[in-house]
Amino acid sequence: MMEQPLLSVRHLSIGLSRQGTQLPVLNDVSFDVAPGEVLGVVGESGAGKSVAGAAIIDLLVPPLRRTAGEIALRGDRLDLMSPRQMHRVRGKRVGFIFQDPMTSLNPVLSIGKQLKDTMRTHLRLGSSELHGRALDWVTRVGLPNPERILKAAPHELSGGQRQRIVIALALCAEPEIVIADEPTTALDVSVQAQMLDLMRLLHKETGTAMVLITHDLGVVAKMADRVAVFYAGRLIEIASTRALFQSPRHPYTAGLIGATPAPDGQGGMQVVAIPGAMPGVDALPPGCAFHPRCPRAQADCRTVVPPLVVLGTGEAACLHPLPERTAA
Amino acid sequence: MIVARSLFSTFRSAPGATLATLAIAALFAYAFLVPLFTADPFQLAGMSIMDSFTPPLWMDGGNPAFPLGADDQGRNIITAMAYGLRTSIVVGVSAVLIGLVLGGALGLLAGFVGGRTDAVIMRIADVQLAYPALLLAMVIDGIATAVVGRERSATLAIAIVIFAIGIAFWVQFARTIRSSVLVERDQDYVAAAQITGRSKLAIVMWHILPNVMAPVLVIATINLGIAIITEATLSFLGIGIPLTHPSLGALIRNGNAFLQSGEWWISAWPCLVLVVLVIAVNVLGDHLRDHFNPKLRGRS
Amino acid sequence: MKLEGVDVKAVSKTFGGKAGAFERLLGRTPRGLRAVRDVSFSISRGEVLGLVGESGCGKSTLARVIGGLLEPTGGDIAFRGVKPRLQMVFQDPFSSLNGRWRVDDIIAEPIRTHRLRPKGEVAGRVAELLEQVGLSPADGVKYPQAFSGGQRQRISIARALAGEPDFLILDEPTSALDVSVQAQILNLLRDLQSRLGLTSLFITHNLSVVRLMADRVGVMYLGELVELASADDIFTNPKHPYTRLLIDAAPDLDPIDRTLHPIPGELPDPSRPPSGCSFRTRCPYAQPLCAETPPPLRWEAAREVRCHFDLTPKSLSVPA
C-alpha cells in the first residue's frame, strides 16, 4: 500500500506477567506510518494504545514486556537495539510528548537548560548557536518574551505554556517521528484547540511524522491522516480518517462514534451507548473480543478470532463488517 | 473482613512474617496456657529451696523435673517464665490499647475539627515528644505511686505501670490518625455523607475511622514491641511491678545477680524469650506496614 | 409540601483572603482567590440546569456551595417550599465511594439516615435501586473495589436516588469515564430524569454533554456567570463571545472541515482578575470600554448576557 514506510510495526505483542502467567495486553498488532503522516490511535482506557506507543520507544515498564514483534524505523530494527543504542534513538530520531507535561520536564532545571541539553545531546551545535535555536523554538511554539521563558523554571509557567515547551522539546532535535500520548487530555477545551493548532503548524513546517494516541475522537478527526482503532489489545480497524468517520466498517468503531454526543439533525442531541463494557485482558472472551457487545454478532464470532483484512480502502478485523456507506 | 483475607494471602509470599506470626501465637499460648495447669511459683507454696540453682537438664546436676533449670528460690524456670511472659504481654497490650484509644480520640478530634482544637492538641503532643518515653513513664509512675502511697495493691501497681507506658504512646497514634483524617475528610465519600445529612460524629465513626485503621494497626503492632521493652526496662530498674507478679524484666533483673557466679540460666532464658517476642512483633509490624502501603504492594 | 425551586442569590465564594496572625502583624491582607463572584440564577421544579465552563471557572465550587458543603462568603441559597433533601453525584468514581463499606450499605445509607423505608424494606429497596441503575441485586454484597469506573458511577447514582432527593447535584458525573461508558451513564441519567422528573444541577466542561442533558445552560468564566439561556438558544444563537468561542473550540467528528478554533490566550490568575470585563484579555471584540467598566448582566427575553455589546452570531469567527 505504501512505498517505504517510515515506521513499521509487525506482529507486536505485549504481555503482562502476573503470577507466572502472561496476559496479552497487546496481541499481534501491525501497522505502518509513512513519512510525514499523522497516524491517530484511538481506543478506550485499557485497549492497549498507550503500551503500543511506549513499546515503540522501548519505554515499557515491568511487569509489561514485549513478547513478540518487530519494530523498524527506516529499516533499522529498534526491537534488536541495545539499551544504549535505543537511548540515542529516543529524543533524536523519535520524539515524544506525554499527557502530563510535568513528567517530561525536569522541575529543577530552567527551560533554556533543558532545551539546550536536548539539542546538545543530539545535534552538533556550538553554544551560541544552541542559545539562538532555543530562543527560536520558544518563539515557534508561540510563547511571548522568549529570553524570560528560557530562564524560567517549569513551575513558573502555566499548564498550557508547559505543554508548549514539551512540544518544543520533542521537536527540537529534529526527530523523524513523534509519539504523542494524550497530548491534550489534561488541557481545557480552549487551550486544547491552541495546542492542536500549534502541533498542526509545526507538523507542516517540519514534516515530522506523528503517532497521535488519544481517546478523543474529535482530536483524531481534526488531526490524523489515518486512524487505527484498538479494542481489548487488538487493532480492529485502520483506515483513512475520512473513510473511518464516514463509513466505519467495524461495529465497535461505529459504536464509538455513536457514543459521542452529537446533534441528531432534528435540532436535538443524541447518544447511542454500546451495551456492556470492554473486557479486561484477564477475562477475554473466546473468538472476537467484541462479540458479547456486538449487535451484528453471529455464532462464528464466538469461536473465530477475526484477522485484520483489507476492506475497501482500509482494513478491519471483523467477520461481519458493516457495509460500506457512500458519502452523501 | 476483606483486609484480613487479603492479608493472609500475602503471608504466602512472606515467610518471615509467617514465622513471626507462628512465634507470637506459640508464645501467647505458652504464656496463657501454662498458668492454667501450674501453681503460681511466686506464692510461698510454689517455692522449694531444696531445688534452688538446679542447672538445665543437660548440665551436671540437671533434674528432669526442671528442663531449663531452677532459680535461686527453686522455681521451675519454664513455669516462672510463663507467668512473667503473661504479665509482660498483659502490660504491653493494655498500654498500647490505652495509647491507641487516647491518641485515636485526640487524633480524630484534631483532624476533623481542626482550628484551635487541632492546634492545642498537636502542641501538647510536640511538647511531650521532647521527653523520652521511658523517662516519662518513670515520672508518671513516680507521681502516681506518691499519690497512691506505698501501700498499694499489686493490681493497682500494675494498672499504674500500664497507664504510665500507655500515656507515653498516645502522641504517635494521634499524629498518624490526624494526618490520615486530613486526607480522608476531603474525599468525596465524606462529602456524600455530609450531603445526605449525617452528623459529624457519625461521619467520623462510620466513614473516616474504618479508613484510618490500617496505619493504626501497624503502629499498634510496632508499639507493642516497644511497650514490652519499656516495661521490662522499668522492671529491670526495679520500678513499677511488684515482685509478686514479676514480668520478664523482673526475672532478668533477678537472674542478673547470679550471672557473675555462673548461674547464667536464670536470666538468659527470660532474655531469650523477650528477644524472640519483640523481634517477632516487629517483623509482623513491618509486614503489616508493607501490606498496607499501596506503593510497595505488588513489588516482588 | 414539595420543593418548588432553588434560588441562588448573588453567591460569592472567596478562598483565603483572611489575614492570619503573621499578616496582621505586618498589617497586610492577603489577596483571596475569588472562585465564585456574585452568581445568581434560579432552577424551577423538574428542571435540569446545566453549568459549563473550563477548569478554574468556579463551577465545582459553586456546586459545593449550593450543596451546603462550603459556606458562601456572600449571598445565599434559598429553597422554595420545603427544606429539601439533597443528593450529589461526584466526578471521581473512586473517592466518592467508601472502600470499607459494602455496596448495599453505601446505597442504604441515605434511606436509613432519612428513615425513608421501614427497616424490613431497606434491603428490597436497595435491590430495586441496583436494578434501576443497571446492576444486579447480587452486586450489593461486594465492595466498591470490585467495580469498574462506570459501574461505580452507577452505584453513586443509586445512592443519590436512594435519598429520594428533591434536588440533585451532578458534578462532572461522566468526565472520568471512557466515551462508550459515558454514553451509558448519560442515557441512564436521561431515562431517570424523564421518569422521576428530578430537579437538578448538571455541571460539566463538555458542551455536547450539557446540550444533551440540560434544559437551560449557564456559562461560567473566571467565577462569573457570563450567559444563561435555554440549551437551544445557547448553542444555536449564543450572545456572549466566550460562549461562541467555547462552542467552536471543541473539535467535532467532522473529518472534512478540519478547521480548529482555538480561543487565544489563557485563563487569567483568578486572584487577579482583569479590570472591567473578565473575558476582555482573550476577547477578539474587546473595546476600550471593556477594560474600564465591568459589563452588567443584561436581560434579553429569557436570556441573561454579561457583555457590553450585541453579538451577531452568524458573522462570528476568530480573526487570524
TrEMBL record, chain B:
The keyword Transmembrane helix applies. PROSITE patterns: ABC_TM1 (PS50928). Its main location: membrane. CDD domains: TM_PBP2 (cd06261). InterPro entries: BP-dependent_transpt_permease (IPR050366), MetI-like (IPR000515), MetI-like_sf (IPR035906). It is found in: Cell membrane. Pfam families: BPD_transp_1 (PF00528). The chain crosses the membrane at residues 89-115, 127-148, 154-173, 208-229, 264-285. Keywords: Cell membrane, Membrane, Transmembrane, Transmembrane helix, Transport. It is a multi-pass membrane protein. Residues 85-285 form the ABC transmembrane type-1 domain. Belongs to the binding-protein-dependent transport system permease family. This is ABC transporter permease.
UniProtKB/TrEMBL annotation, chain C:
It is found in: Cell inner membrane. InterPro entries: AAA+_ATPase, ABC_transp_ATP-bind, ABC_transporter-like_ATP-bd, ABC_transporter-like_CS, Oligopep_ABC_C, P-loop_NTPase. Keywords: ATP-binding, Nucleotide-binding, Transport. Residues 6-247 form the ABC transporter domain. Its main location: membrane. Pfam families: ABC_tran (PF00005), oligo_HPY (PF08352). It is a peripheral membrane protein. One of its GO terms (molecular function) is ATP binding. NCBIfam families: oligo_HPY. Belongs to the ABC transporter superfamily. This is ABC transporter ATP-binding protein.
